Amino acid sequence: MNPNLRKRLLGLFFAFFFCFLCTSAAEDRLPQLPDELRLFQGQGRQIHLALPVQASISVDRPDVVMLNGQAVPSMTVSLENPVNLSPVHSGEAKLRMKLFGQIPLKTVKLNVIPDLKVIPGGQTIGVKVKSAGILVVGHHQVSDNNRKLSPGEAAGLKVGDLITHIDGVRLKDVKDVAEMAGKAGKTNKPLQLTYTRGGKSFNTSLSPAFDDQDRAWRLGLYIRDSAAGVGTLTFYAPDQGVYGALGHVITDMNTQTPIVVGSGEILQSSVTSISKSESGEPGEKRAHFIKEGKTLGNIERNTHFGIFGKMKQNPDHSVYQTSIPVAFSEEVKEGQAEILTVVEGQKVERYRIEIVHVSKQSAPETKGIVLRITDPRLIEKTGGIVQGMSGSPIIQNGKLIGAVTHVFVNDPRSGYGCFIEWMLQDAGILQGNSSSQNLKAG
Protein backbone atom coordinates (compact mmCIF):
# COMPACT_ATOMS: atom_id res chain seq x y z
CA MET A 1 0.00 0.00 0.00
CA ASN A 2 1.16 3.53 -0.77
CA PRO A 3 2.80 4.96 2.40
CA ASN A 4 1.06 8.33 1.94
CA LEU A 5 -2.32 6.64 1.55
CA ARG A 6 -1.63 4.60 4.66
CA LYS A 7 -0.87 7.76 6.65
CA ARG A 8 -4.02 9.43 5.39
CA LEU A 9 -6.14 6.41 6.31
CA LEU A 10 -4.57 6.22 9.79
CA GLY A 11 -5.21 9.94 10.22
CA LEU A 12 -8.84 9.53 9.22
CA PHE A 13 -9.19 6.55 11.57
CA PHE A 14 -7.76 8.42 14.56
CA ALA A 15 -9.87 11.48 13.75
CA PHE A 16 -12.98 9.29 13.57
CA PHE A 17 -12.01 7.49 16.79
CA PHE A 18 -11.41 10.81 18.59
CA CYS A 19 -14.78 12.14 17.43
CA PHE A 20 -16.44 8.93 18.58
CA LEU A 21 -14.89 9.18 22.05
CA CYS A 22 -15.81 12.85 22.39
CA THR A 23 -19.37 12.27 21.22
CA SER A 24 -19.81 9.32 23.61
CA ALA A 25 -18.41 11.37 26.49
CA ALA A 26 -20.72 14.24 25.60
CA GLU A 27 -23.75 11.95 25.50
CA ASP A 28 -22.84 10.65 28.95
CA ARG A 29 -22.86 14.23 30.24
CA LEU A 30 -26.14 15.21 28.57
CA PRO A 31 -28.44 13.75 31.27
CA GLN A 32 -27.10 16.57 33.47
CA LEU A 33 -28.55 19.06 31.00
CA PRO A 34 -32.38 19.09 30.95
CA ASP A 35 -34.51 19.66 27.85
CA GLU A 36 -35.82 22.88 29.39
CA LEU A 37 -34.18 25.48 31.62
CA ARG A 38 -36.13 28.09 33.56
CA LEU A 39 -34.31 31.32 34.31
CA PHE A 40 -35.26 34.50 36.10
CA GLN A 41 -34.65 37.69 34.16
CA GLY A 42 -31.42 39.29 35.34
CA GLN A 43 -30.17 36.15 37.14
CA GLY A 44 -27.31 34.41 35.35
CA ARG A 45 -26.97 30.64 34.98
CA GLN A 46 -24.13 28.35 33.93
CA ILE A 47 -23.97 25.20 31.81
CA HIS A 48 -20.90 23.12 32.65
CA LEU A 49 -20.35 19.84 30.80
CA ALA A 50 -16.58 19.70 31.49
CA LEU A 51 -15.69 18.21 28.11
CA PRO A 52 -12.30 18.93 26.44
CA VAL A 53 -13.86 19.60 23.03
CA GLN A 54 -14.84 22.56 20.90
CA ALA A 55 -18.54 23.14 20.22
CA SER A 56 -20.70 25.61 18.41
CA ILE A 57 -23.50 27.07 20.54
CA SER A 58 -26.29 29.24 19.20
CA VAL A 59 -29.42 30.92 20.53
CA ASP A 60 -32.30 31.95 18.28
CA ARG A 61 -33.24 34.90 20.52
CA PRO A 62 -30.09 36.76 21.62
CA ASP A 63 -32.40 39.59 22.74
CA VAL A 64 -33.81 37.16 25.34
CA VAL A 65 -30.62 35.34 26.43
CA MET A 66 -26.99 36.37 25.92
CA LEU A 67 -24.14 33.86 25.57
CA ASN A 68 -21.05 34.50 27.69
CA GLY A 69 -22.15 38.12 28.09
CA GLN A 70 -22.52 38.73 24.34
CA ALA A 71 -25.76 39.39 22.44
CA VAL A 72 -24.72 37.22 19.49
CA PRO A 73 -26.61 34.40 17.76
CA SER A 74 -23.73 31.92 17.91
CA MET A 75 -20.14 31.35 19.00
CA THR A 76 -17.54 28.62 19.29
CA VAL A 77 -16.56 27.61 22.82
CA SER A 78 -14.64 24.96 24.69
CA LEU A 79 -17.05 22.77 26.64
CA GLU A 80 -14.29 22.32 29.19
CA ASN A 81 -15.30 25.76 30.50
CA PRO A 82 -18.73 26.86 31.77
CA VAL A 83 -21.08 28.54 29.32
CA ASN A 84 -22.71 31.59 30.92
CA LEU A 85 -26.36 32.32 30.14
CA SER A 86 -27.50 35.89 30.86
CA PRO A 87 -31.31 36.32 30.68
CA VAL A 88 -32.12 39.81 29.39
CA HIS A 89 -35.88 39.84 28.74
CA SER A 90 -38.75 37.51 29.59
CA GLY A 91 -39.67 35.12 26.80
CA GLU A 92 -38.61 31.85 25.22
CA ALA A 93 -35.49 30.94 23.29
CA LYS A 94 -33.77 27.80 21.99
CA LEU A 95 -30.17 26.94 22.72
CA ARG A 96 -28.50 24.56 20.26
CA MET A 97 -25.14 22.84 20.72
CA LYS A 98 -23.10 21.11 18.02
CA LEU A 99 -19.79 19.27 18.34
CA PHE A 100 -17.14 20.52 15.90
CA GLY A 101 -19.85 22.77 14.45
CA GLN A 102 -21.41 19.76 12.66
CA ILE A 103 -22.66 17.02 14.99
CA PRO A 104 -25.97 17.95 16.74
CA LEU A 105 -25.50 17.50 20.47
CA LYS A 106 -28.39 19.08 22.37
CA THR A 107 -31.27 21.52 22.01
CA VAL A 108 -32.49 23.19 25.19
CA LYS A 109 -35.59 25.31 25.56
CA LEU A 110 -34.88 28.45 27.62
CA ASN A 111 -37.85 29.96 29.43
CA VAL A 112 -37.03 33.38 30.89
CA ILE A 113 -39.43 34.53 33.63
CA PRO A 114 -39.71 38.11 34.98
CA ASP A 115 -37.38 38.65 37.91
CA LEU A 116 -38.79 37.76 41.33
CA LYS A 117 -37.21 38.54 44.68
CA VAL A 118 -38.62 38.31 48.20
CA ILE A 119 -37.52 39.00 51.77
CA PRO A 120 -36.98 35.79 53.81
CA GLY A 121 -38.87 35.70 57.11
CA GLY A 122 -38.11 33.47 60.09
CA GLN A 123 -40.29 35.38 62.56
CA THR A 124 -42.59 33.41 64.84
CA ILE A 125 -46.17 34.41 64.10
CA GLY A 126 -49.49 33.89 65.81
CA VAL A 127 -52.16 32.46 63.52
CA LYS A 128 -55.90 33.00 63.96
CA VAL A 129 -58.18 31.57 61.31
CA LYS A 130 -61.95 31.41 61.03
CA SER A 131 -63.46 28.80 58.73
CA ALA A 132 -65.90 29.58 55.92
CA GLY A 133 -68.71 27.86 57.81
CA ILE A 134 -69.15 25.57 60.81
CA LEU A 135 -67.02 22.41 60.97
CA VAL A 136 -68.53 19.21 62.36
CA VAL A 137 -65.97 17.71 64.75
CA GLY A 138 -68.13 15.08 66.45
CA HIS A 139 -71.61 13.74 67.27
CA HIS A 140 -73.39 14.47 70.56
CA GLN A 141 -76.14 12.30 72.01
CA VAL A 142 -79.12 14.38 73.16
CA SER A 143 -81.32 13.13 76.03
CA ASP A 144 -84.89 13.62 74.77
CA ASN A 145 -87.78 11.96 76.65
CA ASN A 146 -85.58 9.20 78.04
CA ARG A 147 -84.07 8.41 74.65
CA LYS A 148 -80.61 9.16 73.28
CA LEU A 149 -80.23 10.47 69.75
CA SER A 150 -78.12 12.73 67.58
CA PRO A 151 -80.26 14.70 65.11
CA GLY A 152 -77.12 15.67 63.17
CA GLU A 153 -76.03 12.07 62.73
CA ALA A 154 -79.60 11.08 61.74
CA ALA A 155 -79.50 13.84 59.09
CA GLY A 156 -76.44 12.21 57.52
CA LEU A 157 -73.81 14.70 58.70
CA LYS A 158 -70.33 13.25 59.22
CA VAL A 159 -67.22 14.40 61.04
CA GLY A 160 -65.31 16.77 58.74
CA ASP A 161 -68.40 18.17 57.01
CA LEU A 162 -68.52 21.97 56.71
CA ILE A 163 -71.96 23.49 57.24
CA THR A 164 -72.07 26.68 55.18
CA HIS A 165 -75.77 27.70 55.29
CA ILE A 166 -78.82 27.16 57.49
CA ASP A 167 -82.18 28.04 55.93
CA GLY A 168 -80.32 29.85 53.17
CA VAL A 169 -78.37 32.08 55.58
CA ARG A 170 -74.56 31.91 55.35
CA LEU A 171 -73.06 30.98 58.72
CA LYS A 172 -70.49 33.42 60.07
CA ASP A 173 -70.28 32.52 63.77
CA VAL A 174 -70.81 29.32 65.73
CA LYS A 175 -72.85 31.27 68.30
CA ASP A 176 -75.60 31.83 65.73
CA VAL A 177 -76.34 28.10 65.51
CA ALA A 178 -77.86 27.79 69.00
CA GLU A 179 -80.36 30.59 68.30
CA MET A 180 -81.38 29.01 64.98
CA ALA A 181 -81.76 25.57 66.62
CA GLY A 182 -83.95 27.02 69.39
CA LYS A 183 -86.23 28.84 66.95
CA ALA A 184 -86.65 25.75 64.75
CA GLY A 185 -87.36 23.50 67.76
CA LYS A 186 -90.03 25.78 69.20
CA THR A 187 -91.81 26.07 65.84
CA ASN A 188 -91.34 22.36 65.07
CA LYS A 189 -89.82 23.29 61.72
CA PRO A 190 -86.77 21.36 60.45
CA LEU A 191 -83.63 23.30 59.56
CA GLN A 192 -82.48 23.17 55.94
CA LEU A 193 -78.70 22.72 55.96
CA THR A 194 -76.19 23.16 53.14
CA TYR A 195 -72.81 21.54 53.73
CA THR A 196 -69.69 20.57 51.80
CA ARG A 197 -67.90 17.23 51.82
CA GLY A 198 -64.95 16.34 49.62
CA GLY A 199 -65.29 19.59 47.69
CA LYS A 200 -68.95 18.90 46.79
CA SER A 201 -72.06 20.65 48.14
CA PHE A 202 -75.04 18.77 49.65
CA ASN A 203 -78.34 19.59 51.34
CA THR A 204 -80.13 17.91 54.22
CA SER A 205 -82.99 18.48 56.65
CA LEU A 206 -82.34 18.43 60.42
CA SER A 207 -84.91 18.54 63.22
CA PRO A 208 -83.37 19.73 66.53
CA ALA A 209 -84.09 17.68 69.69
CA PHE A 210 -84.84 19.08 73.14
CA ASP A 211 -82.15 18.15 75.66
CA ASP A 212 -83.79 17.30 79.01
CA GLN A 213 -80.53 17.87 80.89
CA ASP A 214 -79.65 21.44 79.87
CA ARG A 215 -83.18 22.42 78.78
CA ALA A 216 -82.25 23.61 75.28
CA TRP A 217 -82.72 22.59 71.65
CA ARG A 218 -79.68 20.81 70.24
CA LEU A 219 -78.40 19.57 66.86
CA GLY A 220 -76.50 16.68 68.39
CA LEU A 221 -73.23 17.91 66.91
CA TYR A 222 -69.91 19.12 68.23
CA ILE A 223 -69.00 22.08 66.05
CA ARG A 224 -66.16 24.60 65.68
CA ASP A 225 -65.51 27.62 63.49
CA SER A 226 -61.97 28.77 64.36
CA ALA A 227 -58.43 27.68 65.11
CA ALA A 228 -55.33 29.33 66.56
CA GLY A 229 -51.67 28.47 66.88
CA VAL A 230 -48.12 29.55 66.12
CA GLY A 231 -45.87 29.05 63.12
CA THR A 232 -43.09 30.73 61.17
CA LEU A 233 -43.21 33.36 58.43
CA THR A 234 -41.45 32.13 55.28
CA PHE A 235 -41.30 35.21 53.06
CA TYR A 236 -42.67 38.68 52.37
CA ALA A 237 -42.91 39.90 48.76
CA PRO A 238 -42.81 43.72 48.99
CA ASP A 239 -43.53 44.35 45.30
CA GLN A 240 -46.76 42.35 45.49
CA GLY A 241 -47.63 43.05 49.14
CA VAL A 242 -48.17 39.36 49.98
CA TYR A 243 -46.62 36.80 52.32
CA GLY A 244 -46.34 33.03 52.73
CA ALA A 245 -45.97 31.04 55.95
CA LEU A 246 -45.99 27.56 57.54
CA GLY A 247 -45.18 25.48 54.43
CA HIS A 248 -48.06 23.07 55.13
CA VAL A 249 -51.84 23.15 55.40
CA ILE A 250 -53.68 24.04 58.63
CA THR A 251 -56.01 21.23 59.65
CA ASP A 252 -58.60 20.90 62.39
CA MET A 253 -56.97 19.24 65.39
CA ASN A 254 -59.80 16.69 65.87
CA THR A 255 -60.80 15.77 62.33
CA GLN A 256 -57.48 16.46 60.54
CA THR A 257 -59.65 18.16 57.92
CA PRO A 258 -58.04 21.12 56.10
CA ILE A 259 -59.67 24.36 57.25
CA VAL A 260 -61.45 26.28 54.51
CA VAL A 261 -60.61 29.91 55.22
CA GLY A 262 -63.39 32.41 55.77
CA SER A 263 -61.16 35.02 57.38
CA GLY A 264 -58.05 35.20 59.51
CA GLU A 265 -54.99 37.12 60.55
CA ILE A 266 -51.36 36.64 61.52
CA LEU A 267 -50.01 38.48 64.56
CA GLN A 268 -46.76 39.30 66.28
CA SER A 269 -45.72 36.47 68.57
CA SER A 270 -42.91 35.85 71.03
CA VAL A 271 -41.31 32.51 71.94
CA THR A 272 -41.39 31.96 75.69
CA SER A 273 -39.83 28.48 75.92
CA ILE A 274 -38.90 25.37 73.95
CA SER A 275 -39.90 21.79 74.61
CA LYS A 276 -36.95 19.91 73.08
CA SER A 277 -37.45 17.18 70.50
CA GLU A 278 -36.37 13.64 71.35
CA SER A 279 -36.59 10.42 69.37
CA GLY A 280 -40.26 9.51 69.26
CA GLU A 281 -41.30 12.78 70.91
CA PRO A 282 -41.38 15.90 68.70
CA GLY A 283 -40.89 19.08 70.71
CA GLU A 284 -42.60 22.42 70.25
CA LYS A 285 -42.16 26.16 70.52
CA ARG A 286 -44.21 27.73 73.27
CA ALA A 287 -45.20 31.24 72.29
CA HIS A 288 -47.79 33.87 73.07
CA PHE A 289 -49.44 36.57 71.02
CA ILE A 290 -47.93 39.90 71.97
CA LYS A 291 -50.45 41.98 73.88
CA GLU A 292 -51.44 45.01 71.84
CA GLY A 293 -49.13 43.74 69.08
CA LYS A 294 -50.00 44.80 65.59
CA THR A 295 -51.66 42.56 63.05
CA LEU A 296 -49.08 41.65 60.41
CA GLY A 297 -51.45 40.53 57.67
CA ASN A 298 -54.67 38.73 56.80
CA ILE A 299 -55.19 35.11 55.79
CA GLU A 300 -56.83 34.56 52.43
CA ARG A 301 -55.80 31.02 51.51
CA ASN A 302 -54.88 27.81 53.29
CA THR A 303 -53.23 25.32 50.90
CA HIS A 304 -51.07 22.24 51.10
CA PHE A 305 -48.06 24.60 51.05
CA GLY A 306 -49.10 26.98 53.82
CA ILE A 307 -51.13 30.10 54.45
CA PHE A 308 -51.07 33.19 52.25
CA GLY A 309 -52.49 36.70 52.33
CA LYS A 310 -51.80 40.40 52.20
CA MET A 311 -49.09 42.19 54.20
CA LYS A 312 -48.29 45.89 54.03
CA GLN A 313 -44.69 45.96 55.25
CA ASN A 314 -41.75 43.79 56.20
CA PRO A 315 -42.12 42.72 59.87
CA ASP A 316 -39.61 43.67 62.53
CA HIS A 317 -36.60 41.50 63.43
CA SER A 318 -35.81 40.42 59.85
CA VAL A 319 -32.29 39.14 59.17
CA TYR A 320 -32.67 40.46 55.60
CA GLN A 321 -33.84 44.03 55.11
CA THR A 322 -33.93 43.78 51.31
CA SER A 323 -35.17 41.17 48.86
CA ILE A 324 -33.02 38.25 47.68
CA PRO A 325 -33.41 35.94 44.65
CA VAL A 326 -35.46 32.76 44.80
CA ALA A 327 -34.49 29.41 43.27
CA PHE A 328 -36.38 26.96 41.10
CA SER A 329 -36.53 23.39 42.39
CA GLU A 330 -33.92 22.20 39.86
CA GLU A 331 -31.40 24.68 41.28
CA VAL A 332 -31.51 23.16 44.77
CA LYS A 333 -28.47 20.99 45.50
CA GLU A 334 -27.40 18.58 48.20
CA GLY A 335 -24.97 20.20 50.60
CA GLN A 336 -24.77 23.05 53.06
CA ALA A 337 -27.56 25.56 53.60
CA GLU A 338 -29.09 27.53 56.47
CA ILE A 339 -32.49 28.18 57.99
CA LEU A 340 -33.86 31.29 59.69
CA THR A 341 -35.95 30.81 62.82
CA VAL A 342 -36.65 32.02 66.38
CA VAL A 343 -35.92 30.03 69.53
CA GLU A 344 -36.16 32.82 72.09
CA GLY A 345 -38.26 35.98 72.17
CA GLN A 346 -38.53 37.55 68.73
CA LYS A 347 -34.92 37.35 67.55
CA VAL A 348 -34.50 35.66 64.16
CA GLU A 349 -31.18 33.82 63.84
CA ARG A 350 -29.32 31.81 61.18
CA TYR A 351 -28.66 28.12 61.78
CA ARG A 352 -26.64 25.70 59.64
CA ILE A 353 -28.26 22.67 58.04
CA GLU A 354 -27.35 20.08 55.42
CA ILE A 355 -29.61 19.18 52.52
CA VAL A 356 -29.22 15.41 52.22
CA HIS A 357 -31.70 14.68 49.42
CA VAL A 358 -33.50 16.65 46.70
CA SER A 359 -36.50 15.15 44.89
CA LYS A 360 -37.08 15.86 41.21
CA GLN A 361 -40.50 17.50 40.98
CA SER A 362 -42.07 18.90 37.82
CA ALA A 363 -45.39 19.60 39.58
CA PRO A 364 -46.28 20.74 43.10
CA GLU A 365 -45.65 18.04 45.69
CA THR A 366 -44.81 18.23 49.37
CA LYS A 367 -41.62 16.79 50.90
CA GLY A 368 -39.29 17.85 48.11
CA ILE A 369 -36.28 18.37 50.38
CA VAL A 370 -34.79 16.15 53.10
CA LEU A 371 -32.70 18.21 55.51
CA ARG A 372 -30.66 17.68 58.64
CA ILE A 373 -29.88 20.18 61.39
CA THR A 374 -26.11 20.44 61.84
CA ASP A 375 -25.78 23.64 63.88
CA PRO A 376 -24.81 22.66 67.47
CA ARG A 377 -26.46 25.82 68.84
CA LEU A 378 -29.87 24.85 67.49
CA ILE A 379 -29.47 21.20 68.51
CA GLU A 380 -28.61 22.32 72.04
CA LYS A 381 -31.68 24.58 72.27
CA THR A 382 -34.30 22.49 70.47
CA GLY A 383 -32.97 18.98 69.94
CA GLY A 384 -33.60 19.48 66.21
CA ILE A 385 -36.84 20.43 64.46
CA VAL A 386 -39.79 21.27 66.71
CA GLN A 387 -43.45 22.11 66.11
CA GLY A 388 -43.81 25.81 65.39
CA MET A 389 -40.65 25.78 63.28
CA SER A 390 -42.68 24.93 60.17
CA GLY A 391 -42.25 27.65 57.58
CA SER A 392 -38.69 28.53 58.57
CA PRO A 393 -37.06 29.71 55.31
CA ILE A 394 -34.18 27.71 53.82
CA ILE A 395 -31.35 29.69 52.18
CA GLN A 396 -28.71 28.21 49.87
CA ASN A 397 -26.08 30.11 47.87
CA GLY A 398 -27.77 33.42 48.59
CA LYS A 399 -31.18 32.28 47.33
CA LEU A 400 -34.42 31.35 49.10
CA ILE A 401 -35.01 27.72 48.10
CA GLY A 402 -37.72 26.39 50.42
CA ALA A 403 -39.26 26.08 53.87
CA VAL A 404 -39.08 23.57 56.72
CA THR A 405 -42.33 21.57 56.94
CA HIS A 406 -42.07 18.34 58.97
CA VAL A 407 -39.84 16.57 61.46
CA PHE A 408 -38.86 12.90 61.39
CA VAL A 409 -40.43 11.59 64.60
CA ASN A 410 -37.67 9.04 65.23
CA ASP A 411 -34.87 11.40 64.16
CA PRO A 412 -35.78 14.96 65.19
CA ARG A 413 -32.57 16.39 63.76
CA SER A 414 -33.92 15.53 60.30
CA GLY A 415 -37.06 16.49 58.47
CA TYR A 416 -38.72 17.58 55.24
CA GLY A 417 -38.93 20.87 53.42
CA CYS A 418 -40.96 22.07 50.44
CA PHE A 419 -39.61 23.98 47.44
CA ILE A 420 -40.23 27.72 47.57
CA GLU A 421 -41.58 27.85 44.03
CA TRP A 422 -44.71 25.92 45.08
CA MET A 423 -45.35 28.43 47.86
CA LEU A 424 -44.81 31.32 45.43
CA GLN A 425 -47.35 29.79 43.06
CA ASP A 426 -49.95 29.50 45.80
CA ALA A 427 -49.19 33.08 46.84
CA GLY A 428 -50.14 34.11 43.31
CA ILE A 429 -46.81 35.73 42.42
CA LEU A 430 -45.27 32.99 40.27
CA GLN A 431 -47.09 31.44 37.35
CA GLY A 432 -47.43 27.71 37.23
CA ASN A 433 -49.89 24.85 37.06
CA SER A 434 -50.31 24.45 40.80
CA SER A 435 -52.07 21.25 41.83
CA SER A 436 -52.30 22.12 45.50
CA GLN A 437 -55.79 22.45 46.87
CA ASN A 438 -56.77 26.07 47.40
CA LEU A 439 -58.82 26.14 50.59
CA LYS A 440 -60.59 29.47 50.49
CA ALA A 441 -64.02 30.82 51.11
CA GLY A 442 -66.29 30.63 48.07
From TrEMBL:
Gene Ontology terms, MF aspect: serine-type peptidase activity
Gene3D superfamilies: 2.30.42.10
All copies of domain Peptidase S55, residue ranges: 200-439
Residues annotated as signal peptide: 1-25
SUPFAM superfamilies, per the entry: PDZ domain-like (SSF50156), Trypsin-like serine proteases (SSF50494)
InterPro entries: PDZ, PDZ_6, PDZ_sf, Peptidase_S1_PA, Peptidase_S55, SpoIVB
Key words of the record: Hydrolase, Protease, Serine protease, Signal
Record-linked Pfam families: PDZ_6, Peptidase_S55
Coiled-coil annotated spans: none
PROSITE patterns in UniProt: SPOIVB (PS51494)
Designated name of the protein: Stage IV sporulation protein B
Protein's organism: Fontibacillus phaseoli
